[in-house]
Design a protein that fits this description.
Rossmann fold; five-stranded mixed sheet; alpha/beta; Ubiquitin-like (UB roll)
């Protein structure tokens, strides 16, 4: 299954704008709750140094992009409709939205840093709502969702483990596999809370709630995108510092600015690359006074103040949370090409610790099944199936034909 990052948050905080700014898709954007009814899927890109610079070749990317030696590697994104308090009980559009998050490996939580939307996403005036409340609410919703699923059949699960001598983490993982939760997530949660693995029937409701919360933290790591940072309240950075002390990764973000810059770049009005701290106007005569003022506003209030719009940084920080590296499979280690002659065509995100055979399966199931050996294109050495991949590796897979 491919890696997927969920774009989450309450209605009307800029989720769809962020999604559009980060992907090639175009979700509907409007200033009212529940604009997004069905989940939107798209592709975001992670920046990595392209091996074309090291090998001094001109690459022909197939599944990714290369801009001046920087490879933009794809990762799937899903923009989920807004969650409101008690969504786990079915409030708002309820469990439909939570279900969309089942296979997300990490979450980017879009928060209205300007405090101008209430807990249900309705406009309430700038600074009238504390955005820190959204952090606690979303985590609570997901934790309670997990907890409800666990408790529905908890007695039979606990009894079965005790009578048949089965491990509780294995049995529970089988129950929660549809949520993208692995055995290791449950094992680590049980250990952290110090629960008695041999007597799960004795675990209290409060302990089950704690278990659900720990599983959420490890199975759905969350990055906080403090959106609308250009119109945030004066205590904006204090709130970010407070969240960082609580262990959160927080990125000041202006999705609207990123979207505007992307559109201007597409029309050749400016030279701008995602994640940059500046842009160059290509021809002022192509722009009217309103457009020039808008670009100057973004430069002063977003790029110069925060170093970027934050959108690209959010994507890359989310990938860091997932401990992913980028590997480049080729079919000819001398010319770095595939069978069609494309040089360094594909770039794949792989979990740290993946080996050469894992890469073979990533390329194609048949290649994984018939794997013989691999070759490191940098050293031209033969490597075995258990070779641990490194970030930036260029690997040829040799399989039976």
């Amino acid at each position: 299954m491919s890696m997927q990052i969920g774009i989450v948050g309450k209605p009307n905080v800029g989720k769809s704008t962020f999604f559009n700014a980060a992907t090639d898709a175009h979700a509907e954007i409007a200033n009212y709750p529940f604009t997004t009814i069905d989940a939107n899927h798209g592709v975001m890109y992670v920046r990595k140094p392209c091996p074309c610079k090291d090998f001094k070749v001109k690459c022909n990317p197939n599944n990714s992009k290369c801009l001046n030696g920087t490879r933009y590697v794809p990762i799937e994104a899903i923009d989920v409709a807004g969650l409101v308090p008690d969504a786990y009980k079915g409030k708002g559009l309820g469990n439909k939205f939570l279900d969309e998050l089942r296979q997300a490996h990490a979450l980017i939580h879009i928060i209205d840093a300007s405090g101008s939307t209430d807990e249900e996403g309705n406009p309430c005036g700038q600074g009238k709502y504390d955005p820190l409340k959204d952090v606690d609410f979303l985590e609570k919703e997901i934790t309670l969702w997990f907890n409800d699923i666990i408790k529905k059949s908890w007695e039979s699960i606990a009894r079965k483990c005790e009578l048949e001598g089965k491990k509780i983490d294995v049995t529970l993982a089988e129950k929660l596999t549809g949520l993208g939760i692995k055995e290791e997530h449950i094992y680590n949660a049980i250990r952290q809370i110090n629960l008695d693995k041999n007597k799960p029937s004795n675990w209290s409701d409060n302990e089950l709630l704690q278990l659900s919360d720990h599983i959420r933290k490890t199975s759905k790591p969350m990055l906080l995108a403090f959106n609308k940072c250009d119109i945030a309240t004066d205590d904006f950075m204090k709130k970010i510092d407070e969240l960082k002390k609580r262990g959160y990764k927080v990125v000041p973000t202006s999705a609207e600015s990123e979207l505007a810059l992307n559109h201007a770049a597409e029309k050749k009005f400016i030279d701008y690359k995602p994640g940059s701290n500046n842009f160059e106007i290509l021809n002022k005569t192509d722009l009217n006074e309103k457009q020039l003022k808008g670009l100057e506003y973004i430069k002063q209030n977003v790029l110069q103040k925060y170093g970027s719009t934050g959108v690209q940084k959010c994507i890359e920080e989310a990938v860091k949370m997932l401990n992913l590296i980028v590997v480049y499979p080729v079919e000819d280690e001398t010319h770095l090409s595939d069978k069609e002659g494309r040089i360094l065509p594909d770039a794949y995100l792989m979990p740290i610790g993946s080996n050469a055979k894992d890469l073979a399966y990533k390329v194609h199931t048949d290649i994984g099944d018939t794997f013989i050996r691999a070759i490191d294109a940098r050293t031209h050495r033969i490597i075995g199936s258990d070779y641990k991949l490194k970030d930036g590796d260029v690997i040829r897979i040799v399989a039976k034909t």
